[in-house]
Amino acid sequence: MIDEELKNTKFFERYCLMLDEDKLSHAIMVVCKDGETARRMTTLMVLKLLCDDVCGECSSCVKVLSGTHPDVLVFPEKDNFLVSDASRIQEETNVKPLLGEKKVFILNNFSRSTPQAQNKLLKTLEEPPKNVYFFIWTTDLNSILPTIKSRTQILELERLSDSAIESFLKRECGEASPLAVKSAEGYLGKALSFQKDESFMADYKLAVSIIRDMKTSKDVLSYASKFSEKLNFENRLNILENCFDELLFVNMGDVEGSALEGLEAEYNQFTVAKIFERINLAKKQFKANCNLGLIADSLLLGILEEKYLCK
C-alpha cells in the first residue's frame, strides 16, 4: 500500500524534482528522528526510482512493497549493520540487475552500525558501478562517520502535519484518536505506538469520560479510584490536560469528529483555564510525593466544581 501522506510532502516533491533534473546522487541518506517514518519514506523513494508513476500496482511496485524484488536488497540482515553486511553489499554491487537497469540497496537504521562496518562500506560508496543506488536512513546523523556523510546526499525529513497523521492512522488502524495524533508530534511511528497502546487508549477514554460524564460527587469517587492507580499516574494527568486542550479547539470549531464535541455549555475557555491550574497543582503534588488518592479526589472534585460554576 502506498503512503499517500508521504507522497504529498514537500520532501517527496523535492526528491521527485531531483530525479526529473537528473540531480540525484547514487547514495541518499534520509535523516529522521522516527524510524518508521524514515523507513516508509525510503521505500516510497525507491518505488519512485523504479516506477515513475508510483502506481503501487505494477510488477515492480508489488515486488518492492512485498520485499521480493531481486534488484532491491535490504540490509542489515540482522538488527545491526555489521562488517559482514558491508562485505556482501560489495559483492552484490558487481552482480547485474535481473529485471531492469537499476540495482538498489536499502540500508535500514544505519545509526545502528559499527565504525568498522561503515569503513568497510566506504569504498563501495566511493566507486559504485553504474546504475547502483544506495538509500540509507538513520535516526541519528551524529552516529555516522564524516567520511560516509561526505559521500552521500543528506536529506532531512520534516515532520508531518496533524491532518496527515490522522489520515494515516485511519487508513492503518481504522480510527484516529485525536490525542494519538497530537502526541505523535508529526511522526508515523509514534502515532502507531500511541494508537495501538492499550493502556494509553484506556487512559484517554477515562479522561474523556471524566470530562463528559462526571456529574456528581458520587461519580468523583468512582473515577478517582481508577484515576489514582499508581501505574502511569503522571501520564493520566498529562492525558487529561491534553484532552482539555483538545476541548478548547473543539469549542472553537477547529476540530471535527472529536469525542468531546457538544460540551461548550459546560466548559467555556475561562473554566478550562481554571482546570489547567488545578491540573498543574496536581502535578506539583505528585512530584512532592503526596498521596495519589488525595490528589485524584481533590483534582476531580475541583473539575466538577468549575464545571458547575460555568453553568
**Main sheet record:** 5 strands, parallel
User: What average pLDDT do the residues reach?
Assistant: 92
CATH homologous superfamily classification of the largest domain: P-loop containing nucleotide triphosphate hydrolases
Based on the structure given, which CATH architecture of the largest domain is correct?
Answer: 3-Layer(aba) Sandwich
- CATH topology value of the largest domain: Rossmann fold
Assigned CATH class of the largest domain: Alpha Beta
Number of helices: 15
Work out the helicity level: 55-70%
Which band does the percent of strand residues land in?
5-15%
Global Rg? 25 Å
Secondary-structure element series: HHEHHEHEHEHEHHHHHHHH
Parts with pLDDT < 50 across at least 5 consecutive residues: none
The overall strand count is: 5
Spatial ordering of strands, largest sheet: 2-3-4-1-5
Q: How is the quaternary structure best described?
A: single chain
Which geometry do the CA atoms define?
A: elongated
Structural class: alpha/beta
| CA distance, first residue to last residue | 49 Å
User: What is the count of structural domains?
Assistant: 2
Keywords for this structure?
311 residues, alpha/beta, 57% helix, single chain, Rossmann fold, Four Helix Bundle (Hemerythrin (Met), subunit A), five-stranded parallel β-sheet, 15 helices
Description:
The protein folds into two domains: 4-158, Rossmann fold; 197-310, Four Helix Bundle (Hemerythrin (Met), subunit A). The chain is built from 15 helices and five strands. It has helices at 4-7, 10-20, 35-50, 59-66, 83-92, 115-126, 146-149, 162-173, 178-183, 188-196, 198-213, 217-227, 233-251, 269-287, 292-310; strands at 27-31, 72-75, 103-107, 132-138, 153-156. The chain has a five-stranded parallel sheet, covered by helices on one side. Strand 2 (72-75), helix 5 (83-92) and strand 3 (103-107) form a beta-alpha-beta unit. Helix 5 (83-92) runs parallel beside helix 6 (115-126). The longest helix has 19 residues, at 233-251. The chain is elongated and about 75 Å long.
